[in-house]
Amino acid sequence: MHILLVADGRSPITLRWKESIRALGHRITLVSTFECQKPDGIDEMYVLPVAFSKVGTGNRDSTGKASRRRRWVSTLRGFFLSARYYLGPLSVRLYARRYRKLVQKIKPDLVHALRIPYEGMLSAFTPPGVPLAISIWGNDLTLHAPRSPWMKALTRQTLARADGLHADAQRDLNLAHQWGFLADKPSLLAPSNGGIDLNLLNTQPEALPTGLEALIPPDYALVINPRGVRAYTCTDTFFRAIPLVLERRPQTVFLCPGMAAESEANRWVQRLRLDQRTILLPSLSQHQLWGLFQRCPVSISVTTHDGTPNTLLEAMGCGSYPIAGDLESLREWIVPGVNGLLVKPDNPQDLAEAIVTILDAPELCKQAADYNLKLIRARAEVGQVRPQLDVFYQWVLGLR
Fold it and tell me: What is the domain-level CATH number for residue 244?
């Protein structure tokens, strides 16, 4: 089978899907919405930078810090997000003709777009007769779709055009029906990264660079927040909770991958004087991040919009106790008090209490780690997901 992926070619999620598709024996052509080098295992790659994706990209220096342009975009994030909701759909339509010509040239058996805005919106212009599968990410329908009349219209157009739908939460499959996806069409419920490879996850971790490792004091309890700073992450709740934790557990350090160049994160650290106990790290490789999950008894994932975050599943697979926002989608995975805790996303005190509770009860961490490992093996392990993905593709093609 020849599959055309429409995705962000830089994304770890795209790279994981690529691995799963290749493992199933299929060919892949990639249309990337961001400029990047062609990933290994891709036959051909084309770039269509919809929704002004060039504005948000930029090189990093040798220390992993973001370029000046990326820092500038970070500072003005709110403005750019609002503008994209109005101008992004327009840019998709401007690229529609080029996209259709590419599909006619590539002649794939199936097109798979890895999220609705803006990859799925572009793929909605796939010529008739070419089967189209769409993946939903956790905030596609709850956060992005309602933000402008044009986002609403293109979201509905995308779901009406889709021949098959993949989501990582049952909530999103239910919501998709309200947005125009017919209930009798093929659907797949599976992690958005194509599955968790437990063997890879728990191999010897990749060490942090010496300079970064030196920032982490030994013999301190480690808490990690891998979600970075995004429109839907509760950054204020997280940072306001830190002083409350340190009042009761001063021997605690908070690790924040992907936040070193974020203006908002740096402002919170300075405002609350958290320098000694809060370490803002650059973006890490997946193996480095998994190594930190193995070292951190607690991981934080507090957001206002989410499906099933890959970092949440990865942390659970590495034995880190998850504390997340109390969202419908996360209740599909977390039983409060059994294998994690759910907190009010806007309540720092609630989050601080949850962190202290777990740091004071290592036996709960051990019990949850055993529970979560069994849960991942049963519902999210890559060996379980890949056969389901193959059946889904055949279903979309009309072969099943």
Answer: 3.40.50.2000
Please give the biggest Cα pair distance in the chain.
63
Are 160 and 134 spatial neighbours (Cβ–Cβ below 8 Å)? no
Q: Which residue, chain included where needed, has tokens 């890895």?
A: 114
Q: Specify the DSSP class assigned to residue 342.
A: E
Question: How far out from the chain centre does Cα 85 lie?
Answer: 20
| pLDDT tens digits, 232-284 | 999 999 999 999 999 999 999 999 999 999 999 999 999 999 988 999 999 99
What residue type is 277 in one-letter code? R
Structure tokens at 112: 């798979």
pLDDT tens, residue by residue, 188-229: 999 999 999 999 998 888 899 999 999 999 999 999 999 999
Name the residue type at position 103. Answer: V
Helices 310-317, 362-379: axis angle to 10 degrees equals 120
Sequence-ordered list of residues with C-beta below 8 angstroms from that of 306, at least 6 positions apart, any chain: 138, 139, 232, 324, 325, 327, 329, 330
Residues 311 and 280 reside in one and the same domain: yes
pTM of the model: 0.92
- Residues 275-315: tens digit of each pLDDT: 889 999 999 999 999 999 999 999 999 999 999 999 999 99
Here the tokens at position 208 are 């942090």
112 shares a domain with 53: yes
Tokens of 249: 């557990």
Reduced to 3 states (helix: H, G, I; strand: E, B; else coil), residue 215 is coil
Cis amide prior to 393 (ω within 30 degrees): no
Residue-range definition of the domain harbouring residue 245 = 198-379
Q: What are 34's two structure tokens?
A: 């961001």
- Same domain, residue pair 178 and 252: no
255 and 159 in a common domain: no
